[in-house]
């Protein structure tokens, strides 16, 4: 459309403008013609539809034509591939991989091929109550720290010898030291280990530390403390192997405080002097609480870095400087990579429960942390077991260590009285627990272990329905909630805690008097740590283990655990364990018994009556005991040995049908071949 201004100009031009305006209107009013669309079902519409169908039929390919076209395309592709695959001047004997090349390639792809793993290196497979294997949980893998060249770093010297032997201890002779270690049930190996002590006054601590020890209600040193503390104060590396609840936390904590307090306090941005690695956040928090209690007398700053806590808050605290850091391996590596701290000042390294760290898959991380600490450090390693992996770590991380072992490795605490009960079915455990709760709670706090998280929630729900107050702890809970539960149980706000194996390690709660293994543990080490939650630091405790007939495989481990702790094994528990094939075989082997009945091996003589067996040993036998005489012949050939072996086996397995003993049989004379009585006449070839 023309604008208003344009219209005014055209009208002002006169007749020519009017003609031009009319022409523009005619051009704008021109509308394009629309195509003719016939009405539906009209003759024209039907005719148009028929034409479209005919065109579509012509456009469709004939099946035969399509098949032939496909054959031609395939022939063209085959011819092209044949032409490209032709090679000239190629020797197959040079191009193909020979045996030696394939061997080197295989060894490069499989570096561990041919290595024989030890029993302890096999992964521990966990099973549920039905015997089905439980797949391991997929966790985030934390890359270890990169290697470091210590020769390029100028480390400052430090002091690590703070022990002066007390005159009373120096006066002890070698025999008296041996008797004292035997009394403490200690086995000490290594070059020139210090003598054990019998009192806190022999350690040479200052008055401030001694007052804190007395305030913490320590009366006398535990066996591991009596030997490990003098070794650590002397600047020696220590490898401690002791059961749970032996007081090993204080055994490395007190020397650590003396070591750190003798060095310059940490400034802003400086790393720690003492580093303690723990496998789990619960154990790390437990060590942190104990360390903070004693470190405040020296104004030392202690920081705990563990997974599940606020990483940002931990990094801020580390950047301000710390004298002692208690951490889990993965989290301390994260902070080192993030620049929050470094290990250049660490001169005292502690690895607590190293076996548990290896079970959780932290071996690469632990080794990388050890390699990042200066080589002339002092290292203390504590473990409940001493498997091959721990032995290899001790050789790599420790220098000329003193090995201290209390009792038998992996044995239960003798201060814990164990009761093993066999119940007919799983439902009977709940009734037993409800019946015994009042009696158990009257003696002190009770800790109930349940293997599965779902079962723990069900047991806690049923306990609350019976109007008992209880706390619940398992791995699916948030870290803040777990800390809240642990603090409430420690303060004895509630005397009953139902937990999974997340509470089996690291919880040091003195007022726990009873542990109930509602479900059997996944392995005997976990069982040992469970019952170790009571009877700590020389106090007495009680543990109940509830078994069902389905637990026959685990019953054998409990029997051996009771025997190592010098406790009586109930007959019904032993009978249940004897139903397990592996325990039965080891039991016979241990007692030099042979359940198989048989004679001597082929080609050997009987030196005595056949293993002392008689016909009366067979079931239902009424014959008096008989002694099988030695073979009468020389029995030097194979046939005589076979005869004697079968005869001895027959007499041992024979069961009489009457009470009258049969007459002694004379030696059986083998029948002569037919015609042997007549002299054979040689026939003539002419007859």
TrEMBL record:
Renumbered to this chain, the Pro residues biased-composition regions fall at 660-674
Residues forming the DEAD-box RNA helicase Q domain are 198-226
Task: State the top-level EC class.
Answer: hydrolase
GO molecular function annotations of the record: ATP binding; hydrolase activity; nucleic acid binding; RNA helicase activity
For this protein, the record's Pfam families field holds: DEAD, Helicase_C
Q: Which reaction does it catalyse?
A: ATP + H2O = ADP + phosphate + H(+)
E.C. designation(s) = 3.6.4.13
**A Gene Ontology biological process annotation?**
regulation of gene expression
Q: Which UniProt keywords apply?
A: ATP-binding, Helicase, Hydrolase, Nucleotide-binding
Which positions fall inside the Helicase C-terminal domain? 415-577
> Where on this chain is Q motif (motif)?
198-226
What residue spans carry the Polar residues bias annotation?
73-90, 613-629, 649-658
Q: Which InterPro entries match?
A: DEAD/DEAH_box_helicase_dom, Helicase_ATP-bd, Helicase_C-like, P-loop_NTPase, RNA-helicase_DEAD-box_CS, RNA_helicase_DEAD_Q_motif
Domain Helicase ATP-binding residues, every copy: 229-404
Question: Region Disordered: what ranges?
Answer: 27-100, 586-687
Write down the SUPFAM superfamilies for this protein, in alphabetical order.
Answer: P-loop containing nucleoside triphosphate hydrolases
The record's annotation in SMART domains points to: DEXDc, HELICc
**PANTHER family named among the record's database cross-references:** ATP-DEPENDENT RNA HELICASE DBP3
Q: Family assignment?
A: Belongs to the DEAD box helicase family.
State what protein this is by name. Answer: RNA helicase
